[in-house]
Amino acid sequence: MIRRVxxxxxxxxxxxxxxxxxxxxxxxxxxxxxxGVYALFGSGGNMGLSVGDDxxxxxxxxFAPLTPKIVAAIGAITPKPVKFVINTHWHFDHxxxxxxxxxxxxxxxxxxxxxxxxxxxxxxxxxxxxEPAAPRSALPVITFDDSxxxxxxxxxxxxxxxxxxxxxxxxIVHFTNANVIHMGDTFITGRYPFVDLSSGGNVNGFVTAADxxxxxxxxxxxxxxxxxxxxxxxxxxxxxxxxxxVRERVRVAMRxxxxxxxxxxxxxTADFDGTHKGGSVSADQFVEFIYRSLGGK
Length: 297
Prior knowledge:
There is one protein chain. The longest helix is centred in the C-terminal third of the chain and has 23 residues. This protein has one domain: Ribonuclease Z/Hydroxyacylglutathione hydrolase-like (Metallo-beta-lactamase, Chain A), CATH 3.60.15. Helix 7 runs antiparallel to helix 8. It has a seven-stranded mixed sheet with strand order 1-2-3-4-5-6-9. Strands 10-11-12-13-14 form a five-stranded mixed sheet, with no helix packed on it. The chain has a two-stranded antiparallel ribbon with strand order 7-8. The protein is an alpha/beta fold and about 300 residues long. The protein is globular. The protein is built from eleven helices and 14 strands. The protein is about 30% helix and about 20% strand.
C-alpha cells in the first residue's frame, strides 16, 4: 500500500490524486493507438502498453491500490500477463504499483537514478513532503544510464534518458514501429510543469527533452503525455515553445537585476495562462521554477 504521506504529497502535486483517495471510483480506460500499442488512463501518470506475441510491456503503473484494475484492463486486451514495467521517473503516481508488480514476477526497468531515489528516503522540497524509501520488491531490477531497447511484439521499443527536467531520472519511451512516444512528465497537457528541483529537475531539461522527441516525431506520431490528454508533435512543439518563451523572459528580467517578486509581478506568463489552468502549479510557481533553474536564489 502507498503510505499516506506519499499519497498526500501527490494529491498536492496532481489533482487527479485527490479523487484517487477513493480508488473504488477509479476506472482504467484504454485507448488503442496503433497496432498493439495502447494508452491507459486511470489516476496518476498516464500509462503506455504494448501487447503481442512476445510479451506484455507496460509503461508506469500508477498507484498500488489500482493494480488489480490495471491488470484487469490489460487482461481485457491480452491474455498474456505483464512481463515488463518501465518507470519514466521515480514519483509514486508512476511507480506506486511497482511493489505489486514486482511481487508478481514482473521485471521492473528504470533509469539508474530512479532506483537510487526509490532506495532511500526522499523529500520533495517544493511541497514539503517526505517520501519513504520503497520496499525492495518495488525497486527496478534492471537499470540503465543512457538508453535501452526492447525488441518485442514486432517493434523496437527504445527508452532513453534525457537531461534532468521533471527529475534527474526522466525517461522517454519510443515505440518505433508503432510511431508512439510516451513522454513521462517531461510533457503534460493543459497545465504548467512541475519542476522537482529537489529531485534534480531543471526547467532547461524540458526544452531539451521536447527537442529530442521532436527529432523522432512526424505528422502521424501519437504522443502520450505524463498527464492530460493524448497529443501529437504540434502539441509537443507548442509546449516546448511556451517553456522556452517564458524562460527567456525570466532570463532577461534576471539579467536586468529584477528580484523574484518583481518578476512574478510582471506576469510574464499572461499570454499562456488561459490554456494552462489545469494542475496545481500556478503561473507564479512556474516562474519560480524557471528562476531557480537559472541560478536564482
